[in-house]
Amino acid sequence: SQTCNGGGIYTVSNVSVTSSQFRNNKASGMGGGLFVEAAAEFSDVELIANVALRGAGAYASAVALTNATISYNVAFL
Asked: What is the top-level taxon of the source organism (predicted)?
């Protein structure tokens, strides 16, 4: 599916995500996989093959990534 921002997840609240995969998401704006406007922690996550205008894998203001795989994401800017 395709959204304006945050194809996989869009949040303006603090969030913690563990053992998740964000794959093949699309955003016409920013953050194909993730769009985060708050404090966020992601551990054991995969951001793979997401597409967006900016920040194909992730577009975030304050994010901590632990044991993350980020690959094959495409930004069209």
From this structure: Eukaryota
Q: Which residue has the tokens 């632990």?
A: 66
**Tell me, what's the pLDDT at 3?**
83
Collect contacts of 70-74 with beta carbons under 8 A, ≥24 apart.
70/46, 71/47, 72/48, 73/32, 73/33, 73/47, 73/48, 73/49, 74/32, 74/49, 74/50
* pTM of this structure: 0.89
